[in-house]
Each structure stands twice: as C-alpha cells, then as structure tokens.
Amino acid sequence: MNEDEMDPEDAALLRCRLHIRGGRILLDHHKITHALGTLFDALDHGLQWYLLVHLHLEPEDLPPDIIGRYRLLQESGISLPESFNIVKFEQDMETALDLDHEPDLDVEELWLQLKSIFLIFGIMPFELEISPEDDPRTREVLGL
To answer: What is the pLDDT of residue 103?
Structure first.
C-alpha cells in the first residue's frame, strides 16, 4: 500500500485492518513483542480513521499522539471500554519493543478490549483469515 497515493481516511483504515490481521497472527504464534507493536499501530490508525470520518477532522487537526487521539474520542462522548487503559497499553508496547521483553499482561484480555474498540468504531468485523505464509515479513518474524 502506498499511503501517499491514498485518501488519508482510506490509508488509515487499510493500515488498521492490515495490522489487526497481522497482530492476531502474531498473537496466535506467541510473538507477543511484535504483536503489541502491530496492534498498537492498528489502534493508532483506527483512531485516526474514526476521527477523520466520524468527527470530520482534517488530518492536520488530529492530536499528534495516540493518547491525545484516544482522549479526544472519550471527550467527544464515544463509549469506549472503561477497562482499557491507553497509557498502560503504550507503556507495555514500549517496554516490549525497547527491551525486547514481554510485559506481564493478559494478551487475550488485551485482544478482547482492542476488538471491542474496533467493533465500536465499525472497523471490525471483517475477514481475519490470512495465511502467514502469504507475507515474507510475517514468515521472517514467525521464523517460518
């Protein structure tokens, strides 16, 4: 995908869906460190898409970070899961990627929280089935 040749809304939605798929594959193969980074990116682009499409913001008006985008949605009255902590998710993701160390968290609970957010946004459901063998980078990360 070439984001520069796409509308910002379409690029954010496609990237979100690709990373949801990839994150789920990585979770299924117990590659938690990579899964956290991938799902973090999926959430970030899902937030961008929602703000652009449903709150009619322009790309230049988006808050510069994921926490700002998430809080803007909360303040706008969107009903998001109370149990989801965006700050902790960012910290867990950074710990995992910076230290190449899996944080102590329930990844299935995290998946369910993220999935509920993607359902609220209307990004899911969509076909999640994809074979890891279809993507060279995924094969490399999974050691296939």
So the answer is: 79
